[in-house]
Amino acid sequence: MSDIKMVNLKIDGIDVSVPAGTTILEAAKTIGIKIPTLCYMKEINEIGACRVCVVEVKGARTLVASCVFPVSEGMEVTTNSERVYNARKTTLELMLSDHKKDCLSCERNLKCELQALSNEYGCNAYRFRGATSKNEPADVTDYLVRDNAKCILCRRCVAVCNKVQTVAVIGANERGFKTNVSPAFEESLAASPCVACGQCINVCPTGALHEKSEIDNVKKAIADPEKIVVVASAPAVRAALGEEFGYPIGTNVEGKMFTALRRLGFDKIFDVNFGADMTIIEESHELVERLTKGGVLPMITSCSPGWVRYMEFYYPDLIPHFSTCKSPQQMTGALIKTYWAEKNGIDPKNIYVVSVMPCTAKKAEKLRDNEQENGYPDVDAVLTTRELAKFIKEKGLMFNELPDGTIDNPLGEFTGAGVIFGASGGVMEAALRTAVEKVTGKTLDKLDFTEVRGMEGIKEATYKVGDLNVKVAVANGLKNAKIICDLIREGKADYQFIEIMCCPGGCINGGGQPILDAYTRRNVDYKSLRANALYSEDAKLKLRKSHDNKAVMEVYETYLGEVGGHKAHEILHTKYVARKKY
Ligand code: SF4
Ligand code: SF4
Ligand code: SF4
């Protein structure tokens, strides 16, 4: 017999039975009642602050916040009375009274939870007039904009930064009417040890947080007749871009995306998947060298720039564990401006490389030292998945009607190993496919290393690589990265190879991906759906191992020379710096 104690109550006259400790909000969901919320994030931000989820409880003098109020035996709850409706409406109107109401040009227009609820409740945005907070100008960094004039102080961003990413660079400053969310002492984010992950943007219910847009720079380059504008998109983009055009979560829209990119005016369409295959060749070589000839172990992947910043700020003593490989974005850009430019007789100064990424940290990565060739940056502009969607809409392209298009070669060729980079565990699996074959000289019977797949925060497995038993770990989200880093520091990590992705679930849930409202984030396994879109593509492809990518191998044969050799190091590897937190 189950020892879970059940509680019986009535919600809107309907009998409900739920485990003790369940909140009214969660209990209502079990009978199909959606109570609105603005601040609530399950287990992360249960603070009852916004008061939008209030309900009536028989016998209670005041309305209660259903997100934090537990059910009790015999309770009678009303979620939809006139009193409840009016209270929610008034709360929303008070929020709007101190809000920069520029919906028409707002980044979040039609994707804003405050706007949607205000509309549902028929709010008058100008009912309450009076003093307003002094919240301008916005804090602008290279990757993110914080416009506190649109902040409703829900603290979802604070919770995700603190509890999911364990970075904790933002919090509430001042009190009362002057309260504002910002780094300590109201410094700019740029002066803080923010890792640029953008997870705060994804959970923000309003337009207070968004990426720093680079669309105008890209448009200018496309319009410049001197410039050859080359675009390359990351694997996770094609698994989520469709959401911006009404496709179900997890639809791979790669073909339509290629057509859209061509119609936007890009001269060449290459693919960051190519750079991912290249990364695997270099990284698996580096791993095998460290395993067989000696070197710092465990070796840790370095393709997630938010994670790189985190390590540099918070665990600088572990920097020698990093693979020195540049990320797929940077490798792709570096080869476009060297190999491809030379092969086609193009002066790299006339090449403008644009990456489309699921990630805001990629905007900061392109500006790092050691990410340039011959004085030219590997990558000139980074658009997030959201920015690409905006660009497509702005140009009047009917995305859903577009035929499937094709990609350009040679830097558009990729294998399934490159595709799965977008999900947590994908880099590990891709590296193992190559490392095992390289060490044993035998073809793998089974290419799926399923133990490292999935959305669990930390995954472990041990694989036979020739005579060696290689223990690996895969962590996603910085809270889990921290656990692994602490184990290494304490000398308790018995792994040889570790994959770490900054964002929970990996790039498919990056800070530049389409916005999903809090209810969807809570109730739909969107990370798995997006990841499955990539694993399905990998399963369908004829070539699924990076070393089977002929275009990659040709770059070595005709240009770079040996894998891990001098020229490869010059172009494809980078350096890290210990950063001071303040
Ligand atoms: S944050 Fe929402 S309510 Fe505010 S201006 Fe933007 S879309 Fe409108
Ligand atoms: S970008 Fe990441 S680290 Fe920076 S404030 Fe947002 S959640 Fe925190
Ligand atoms: S910036 Fe957004 S998520 Fe953060 S407190 Fe303000 S409204 Fe909430």
Describe the 3D structure:
By secondary structure, the protein is of the alpha/beta class. It folds into three domains: 75 residues, Ubiquitin-like (UB roll); 118 residues, Alpha-Beta Plaits (2-Layer Sandwich), CATH 3.30.70; 357 residues, Rossmann fold, CATH 3.40.50. Helix content is 34%, strand content 14%. The chain contains 20 helices and 20 strands. A five-stranded mixed beta sheet has the order 2-1-5-3-4. It has a four-stranded parallel beta sheet with strand order 12-11-14-17, with helices on both faces. A four-stranded mixed beta sheet has the order 13-20-19-18. Strand 15 and strand 16 form a beta hairpin. Helix 9 crosses helix 15. The longest helix is centred in the middle third of the chain and has 22 residues. The N and C termini lie far apart (55 Å). The relative contact order is 0.12. The model has no long low-confidence stretch (mean pLDDT 96). The protein binds iron/sulfur cluster (SF4) (3 copies). The site of one iron/sulfur cluster (SF4) has 14 residues, from helix 4.
Structure summarized in a few sentences:
The protein is 34% helix and 14% strand.
Number of strands: 20
CATH class categorisation of the largest domain: Alpha Beta
The biggest beta sheet is recorded as: 5 strands, mixed
SS content category: alpha/beta
Here the CATH topology of the largest domain equals Rossmann fold
**Ligands (ions, cofactors included):** iron/sulfur cluster
Poorly predicted ranges:
none
Q: How confident is the prediction overall: mean pLDDT?
A: 96
Beta-strand level of the residues, as a percent range?
5-15%
Terminal CA distance reads 55 Å
CATH architecture of the largest domain: 3-Layer(aba) Sandwich
